[in-house]
Amino acid sequence: MELRIMVPIAASWSKKKTAQALAGQVMPTKKPDADNVLKAICDGINGIVFKDDVQVVNVSLSKRFSSTPGVYVRGHGA
User: Which residue range is the domain that position 14 belongs to?
Assistant: First the structure.
């Protein structure tokens, strides 16, 4: 499973800091915690995408700033 969490950039940030965030030079270290988002996503798709989240054996997880916030989930079949 691949999970990408795209966090919004604060409107109050300077253009320089915004550019650094988009380039991955500034990381989002505030809430939500990436592991909590992963758990919520797994709970939400449990019984729909897979029978039980115990079937998830490999996870790629990232949390970055983005101008288009959201969550990207991709499953890989066995």
Answer: 2-74
DSSP 78: -
Check: CB of residue 74 under 8 Å from CB of residue 1: yes
Token readout for 59 is: 């996870």
Q: Is 18 exposed, middle or buried (0-12, 13-18, 19+ CB in 10 A)?
A: middle
- The tens-digit pLDDT sequence of the chain (78 residues) is 999 999 999 999 999 999 999 999 999 999 999 999 999 999 999 998 888 888 889 999 999 999 999 999 998 775
pTM: 0.86
Please tell me the total count of domains within the chain. 1
